[in-house]
TrEMBL record:
Name of the protein in its database record: Regucalcin-like isoform X1
SMP-30/Gluconolactonase/LRE-like region domain span: 68-329
Top-level taxonomic group: Eukaryota
Record key words, sorted: Signal
Length: 359
């Protein structure tokens, strides 16, 4: 039995798990390789309290596994979800109408932190590759994507940053790119060598924030003129006043704290998205959960549970922007179905159209 923060019970009525059957098939047929793409885990959860009742469903996308899935971006025009597998330099596209995932290796690249379509094109994308942001050309189908050019590179000339890479990136509603770096070799909690950057049309790049451990989730609310940002190593979500005309973020304050009684129990906030009501959805890398949070109060409105531990990010998509797409990770030996990308339906919420990058 799970419980809401108020103490009201959540009743899990339905759980379907085919992992055991997949393992039985492997054993009975003496198959050496695990049937990663055959493992299917779905959840249907009914939530009931005195003043609240709902049901949501968690289902895997077909053949969607990534070792470190991240950076989901929903393209309204193409009705497709783009995302990356960070440590192998691969980019993915889930086609909603075909219910199919296409994958491509970026030529001569080993890292891909995020992928964002570029405004005015149909086959060009901004991708974080190491400490560079590159323009990649891809038709969304071919198994190889090519690098067209480098837009900019950061943290040059200081060997402290040699092992840094871009992590999460996203555009504000005006098409400015916000993307941050992190140290990916060594201890990111001890060595806070990351920075959050802003790129504006025409090529201007500036530092938004230094002293960052793991730069992660980003979201904006135009109605309230707010910007939300996650540095995983701070165990919290910060809200900023945001000037949409200038792209300036000021006056940070904590709106959601994921610290527990001891550091080893702290939840690690990862990626993030926002709905039309202004609620933020915070993925937890070590918590099996996305928290739906009201940033005005800090209250958890819903805990969305998954059949794997490392939940990395989320984005609303689908024809009505009411499907929550969720990336996960299978790092550090996490078992199947870790690394699967999921869709969550029945949440009764809608997202905002994501913005392409203005170059």
């Amino acid at each position: 039995m799970l419980r809401l923060p108020s103490g009201k019970p959540i009743l899990v009525l339905y759980f379907v798990c085919c992992l055991w059957f997949a393992r039985q098939i492997v054993a009975e047929n003496n198959v050496d390789e695990p049937l990663v793409e055959k493992v299917v885990v779905s959840l249907e959860v009914h939530v009931n309290s005195e003043n609240f009742s709902m049901s949501y469903k968690v289902e895997p996308l077909p053949e969607s596994h990534a070792e470190l899935g991240e950076g989901p971006h929903w393209d309204v025009e193409r009705q497709s979800l783009y995302y990356v597998d960070i440590h192998v330099g691969k980019i993915y596209r889930y086609d909603y109408n075909e219910d199919k995932v296409y994958k491509a290796q970026i030529e001569n690249e080993t890292l891909a932190g995020f992928i964002i379509p570029i405004e005015g094109t149909t086959n060009e994308f901004a991708v974080g590759a190491g400490r560079r942001v590159i323009v990649v050309t891809w038709d969304g189908v071919s198994p190889v994507a090519k690098v067209k050019k480098t837009l900019f590179e950061v943290q040059q000339g200081d060997q402290r940053f040699n092992d840094n890479r871009f992590n999460d990136g996203k555009c504000d509603p005006q098409g400015r790119l916000f993307a941050g770096t992190m140290k990916y070799v060594g201890d990111e909690f001890e060595h806070r060598y990351g920075e959050l950057y802003k790129y504006e049309k025409g090529g201007k790049v500036e530092v938004v924030k230094s002293d960052v451990g793991i730069s992660n989730g980003l979201a904006w609310n135009e109605k309230t003129k707010k910007f939300y940002y996650i540095d995983t190593t701070d165990y919290e979500v910060k809200e900023y006043d945001y000037d949409f005309a200038t792209g300036k973020a000021t006056n940070p304050k904590v709106v959601f704290n994921l610290r527990k009684n001891s550091p080893k129990d702290h939840l690690l906030p990862d990626g993030m998205t926002i709905d039309t009501d202004g609620n933020i959805y915070v993925a937890t890398f070590n918590g099996h959960t996305i928290f739906k949070v009201d940033p005005k109060t800090g209250n958890v409105l819903l805990e969305i549970k998954f059949p794997c531990k490392q939940i990395t990010s989320a984005a609303f998509g689908g024809p009505n922007l009411d499907i929550l797409y969720v990336t996960t990770s299978s790092r550090f030996g996490e078992p199947d179905p870790a690394g699967t990308t999921y869709k969550v339906t029945g949440l009764g919420a809608k997202g905002l159209p994501m913005t392409k990058m203005q170059v």
